[in-house]
Amino acid sequence: MAKIPDQRWRIAPAQPAKAQQISISTGLLPLVSQVMINRGLETPELADIHIDPEIQDLPSPLEEFPDLAVSVELLQDAIASGEKIAICGDYDADGMTSTALLLRALRHLGADVDYAIPSRMKDGYGINQRIVEEFAATGVGVILTVDNGIAAYDPIVRAVELGLTVIITDHHDLPEKLPPADAILNPKLLAETSPYRGLAGVGVAYILAIALAQSLDKIAGLTSQILELFTLGTIADLAPLVGVNRRWLKRGLRQLPHSQLVGIQALMQVAGVKEEQKQLQPDDIGFKLGPRINAIGRIGDPQLVIELLTTDDPGIALERAMQCEQINSKRQQLCEQIQEEAIALVETKPILWQKLRVLLVISEGWHHGVIGIVASRLVERYGVPVFIGTYEDEDNSIIRGSARGIEEFNIFEALDYCRDLLGKFGGHKAAGGFSFAASNLPALEQKLSEFAYQYLKQEHLKPLVKIDAQASLQQVGQQLYQEIDSLQPWGIGNAFPVFWTPNVIVKEQRKIGKNQAHLKLVLQEENSDTPIKAIAWRWGEYCPLPRKLDIAYKLQENHWQGTSNIELELIGVRLNRETGRQGDGETRGQRRQGDGETRETREMGRRGDKGDRETGRRGDQETRQSISDNVKKARFNYKGKVYACSLWQSLNELRIKNPQGKVLAVTKGDRIGLLGTSRDNAQSVDVTQPHYYQLIKTALAELERQ
C-alpha cells in the first residue's frame, strides 16, 4: 500500500516584480532571483554583494572587536619573552580546527605553544579547573581558549588567582556574568548588524591569528594555511554562511582542492573528494570531511585530529586520515544501531509523542558521543523536538542526553523551564545537552510537554519542508543549475534552493543502496514527454510511492562516463489534489496551497454527488461501494447514529465521518489517528481507546461485507 512522508510545506510567496527587477540587474533567471529575495536580498545592490562579496567594504576587525588590540599585545609580549602559551580547545570540529589553526599560527610566529582538549566523556565541554591547574603546574603563562571559555567563570577565576593571563576566544551565547579574563573576543559582543556577528569559533581564531601575524609583519606563508582550516571548521560547525563567513569561504573553497596542508590532502583522499574540482562545495565538507573530524571528538581522541591538521609529514598525515576513516565507520555503525533501537522504542512502546508534542526517548547502553546525531535524525523523521538520553553510570541513576529542536521550539528555553529537574544543562535554540537523576524521568517528560504545549500546535508536529518557488521540470536544466552553483556557498543561513512541481508522474521507482534504504526514481511532468531521474535518500520505506504527486526537490549534477546530467534530490512529496480523479487507484487527499481542507473532506461536506447524498441520510442502512476498485465506501449504524466510512487502499487509511462532519482518519497499524473537519484542525487521538476501537471495528466489518 502506498505510503508517503507526513510533512508540512511552507512555500515562499512569489514576488514577480522584485524578481524581474533583480533579474534585469544581475542577469540571473527570475527563478533564481526569487530565491535571493527569499534570502532577504531584495534589492539589486544586496544581490550584487551576495554574488561578489569582495566588493563590500568591511570594517577592520580591530575596530569591531574591542579586545582584539589587547589580545594581540598580550601575545606579542609572550612571544617576545618566550613565555609559554597554552591553547584550550574543544572536541568538536570547530574546536579542533580552531586549536590546529592557532597552533600553526603561533608556531609560525615563533611562540612556545602547547594545547589541551577536555575529554567529552570525563570532563564535558570547555575549560575546567583541572586543566587550569595542570597548565599552571607546567609553567604556562598565557591561556588562550578557543571555541569555549565564555561561560567558564570559576575556572577563569582560578587561572587569575594562579597569576595566569587569560584570553578567551569564543562564539557561544553570553552568560549574565562574564568571566574575569584579560581579554575576550566573542562576536556576540558585537552589534547584530556587524558582518563578523556570525563567526564560529574558528573564525574568531582566524581573525586573531591574522591580526597578530600582521602586527609582527610575518603574514607571508600563513594566510592560505589557516584559511583552509577556517573553511573546514566553519562549515563543519554549521555556522551561518553569510557576512564575512561567505566572503572568506568563497576563497577557501576555491583553495581546498589544491590544499597546501598534507593533512587535508590525506583527508580528501580517504573521503573520496576529487582534487580535480575547481572548488569544493559545502556539502563536500559537511558530508565527507567534517564527519570524519567530528567522529574523533565523539568517540576517539581529539589529539589525532590535531596531529592530522598540524603535521607536515605526508606519511603521518595519511596514517591519521585512515584512523579518522576507521573511527567514522564505527560512528556510522553506532548511529545506525541506536537510531533503529530508538525508532523501535518510539513505535512499539509506544511513546505518544503527538500527544506530548515532544519526544523523550531513553535507553541504556547508547554511546553519549553519538546520540546527538540520532536526535537530529529523529527530528527529521518525526518533525518534533527530540530529547534523547542514556544512563551514564552502572546503577542507572543518572541520565545524560542531547536535544534537537524544530523551528517553533527553543531547546535552551525548554531546558531552562525544567531546570529544577535537571543537573547540568546548556545549549541554544536549536540544540542542547543535559543530565538529570533517573528518578526525575516521568516528571521531566511531563514538564517538557507542558513547555511544548505553550509553543507548538498540532500542525507543527511534522517535518517542515521550506520551498522557494514553483518550477516546471522543463525549467530544470544546466542553465538553472549553473546559476545556482555560481551562487555557492549555500548552507546554514543560506539554504540551497528548493523548488516544487505539481502533477508529476512516477514512471519508475526502485530501492537501492545498503539495506535498500534509498529510492531511485524516474519522473515525468504531466503533458511532457521528457523524463528526469531523481534520488530520495532514506526513503526506501516509502516504496512504492503513489503514481502521481506534487514534489519538492533540490537540483544536483550527476557525472557519468564523461557526461553530466541534472537530476533531482527529492526532499518532499504530497498527494496532488487532482490525483483522485484519475481512476488509477491514487488518492486525492492533499490540500491546495493555503487551503486547509482535503478534497475528500470538502466533497463529503457538500454531499455534492449521489453517493455522498445517500451517505448523509440518517437511518438508511444500505451501503454503497465506491466506483473505484481502490477506494471502498460504506455507511453503517453505530449506537443509533449513521456514519460514512471509506477505506483508501493505496494509502492503507481508513476514514470514518460522523453526522457532525468530523472525520477520523487512521492508518492500519497506527495507534494514533487524526480527528477533525480538515487536516489543519485535526487533533491526534489514541484509537486504542474503547470508543474509537469499537467504531473502527464496526466500520471494517461493514466494509468487509462489500
Describe this structure in words.
By secondary structure, the protein is α/β, with parallel strands linked by helices. The protein folds into four domains: 8-27 and 468-576, OB fold (Dihydrolipoamide Acetyltransferase, E2P); 65-327, inorganic pyrophosphatase (n-terminal core), CATH 3.90.1640; 351-460, Diaminopimelate Epimerase, Chain A, domain 1 (Roll); 584-704, no CATH class. It is 38% helix and 22% strand. The strands form five sheets. Strands 19-20-21-22-23-24 form a six-stranded antiparallel sheet, with helices on one face. The chain has a five-stranded parallel sheet with strand order 3-2-4-5-6, with helices on both faces. Strand 13, helix 20 (478-486) and strand 14 (499-512) form a beta-alpha-beta unit. Helix 7 (129-137) packs parallel to helix 8 (153-161) and helix 14 (303-310) runs antiparallel to helix 15 (314-348).
What gap, in angstroms, lies between the N and C termini?
A: 20 Å
Strand arrangement, largest sheet? 19-20-21-22-23-24
Report mean pLDDT, rounded to a whole number: 87
Beta-strand percent range = 15-25%
Globular, elongated, flat, extended or rod-shaped: what is the shape? Answer: globular
- Alpha-carbon Rg, integer: 29 Å
Helix content: 25-40%
- Assembly type of the shown chains? single chain
Sheet with the most strands, sense and barrel status: 6 strands, antiparallel
- CATH second-level architecture of the largest domain: Alpha-Beta Complex
| Unreliable stretches covering 5 or more consecutive residues | 579-629
Q: How many beta strands in the DSSP annotation?
A: 24
Indicate the CATH class of the largest domain: Alpha Beta
What is the number of helices? 23
